[in-house]
Amino acid sequence: MDLNDALMCFGLTRQESTIYLTLLSDGALTGYEAAKRTGISRSNTYTALACLVDKGAARLMEGTPVRYIPVEIEEFSNNKLEHLRQVKQFLQEQIPVRTEAMEGYITIQGDAHISDKVSYMLGHAVYRIYFSGENQVLDSYREILERRGAEGLKVVVITNPPYELPNARIYLADRKPGQIGVIVDSATVLTGDVGNGDQSACLYSGKKNLVDLFKDSLSNEIKIIELTGRNESK
């Protein structure tokens, strides 16, 4: 991800983000100056500048000629996040929520989507988390696992040695590169492979037979690890 990609996550187009970055680096500019410095056509530049003003990323500086000044990134991003928070609250209040448990099998594709789902699972766990994966995979969720353990949840990790994680029960065993397995509250499970970009895929389900199958597999592996003395309590 580059700066343009990051700004596009806040609702800017690529041309708008390019001009916004130019305003941040060069200061107040006229439309002509912005077009000249970015290489974007003058008509597209003026359109983009107007959109930046509408989206709260730039403001007009009155004068002759009119200049555009950037809204600092902290203010712009905080305003966007606050607006999204309000929209989120509105949606949560207005959209009916299904109360029955999800018991199907869902395929989640792509590292970004898998990471989002795992983070959501870990962040919304109530009682316990079981996490199986190699060090490199585990490190992506280290902060949230440590925090959930500190909050009093039971956090059990199976990973390849060496590894330490505060507030967690650690079991050391060889893990296949890219494999991941997560069980939350004995209610939902995610398992599959990551690290292949858009080609990564995981199965997610709240179906009891799959959750129990994966949980039993981890429990049996933990028993073997305990017998061999490779477990570490942290």
UniProtKB/TrEMBL annotation:
Q: Where is the Transcription regulator TrmB N-terminal domain?
A: 7-74
**Which residue windows are transmembrane per the record?**
none
Query: What's the superkingdom here?
Result: Bacteria
Q: Which Pfam families match?
A: TrmB
Q: Which residues form a coiled coil?
A: none
**PANTHER family per the UniProt record, alphabetical:** HTH-TYPE TRANSCRIPTIONAL REGULATOR TRMBL2 (PTHR34293)
Q: What is this protein called?
A: Sugar-specific transcriptional regulator TrmB
Q: Which lineage?
A: Bacteria, Bacillati, Bacillota, Clostridia, Lachnospirales
